[in-house]
Amino acid sequence: ADCAILIIAAGTGEFEAGISKDGQTREHALLAFTLGVRQLIVAVNKMDTTKWSEDRFNEIVKETSNFIKKVGYNPKAVAFVPISGWHGDNMLEDSANMPWYKGWSRETKAGAVKGKTLLDAIDAIEPPSRP
């Protein structure tokens, strides 16, 4: 795979369970890196259950950045996108429910890449050079 999309539940308790020592979120990030997937997108889902909380999103970005760095990913090269899959927010079009969200930015070999939605993040994945 050229890229992995790590879906993280923003709900109270759900995120914490996922990144706990034996949590599946942590396990999936490690598995992707171990299998050679070097590009990562983090979608913070269920933002509707947090009442579209900027603080909750920022807390999750901070905690997730810490653990994906330990796995081997560079958090500055990862797009973090707050979404609600249930309502479709920030999936294909930017969401009016999160006016505080100004978009994601990530570093690439060619320079900074920016976008707002999950689709933008997927479109910004760099195809690796193949032998």
UniProtKB/TrEMBL annotation:
Record has Cell cycle as a keyword: no
The keyword Nucleotide-binding is annotated on this UniProt entry: yes
Pfam families registered for this protein in UniProt: GTP_EFTU
Source superkingdom: Eukaryota
One function term, GO molecular function aspect: translation elongation factor activity
Keyword set, alphabetical order: Elongation factor, GTP-binding, Nucleotide-binding, Protein biosynthesis
Domain Tr-type G: 1-131
PROSITE patterns: G_TR_2
The protein's name: Translation elongation factor 1-alpha
Protein species of origin: Protomerulius brachysporus
Name of the gene this protein is made from: tef1
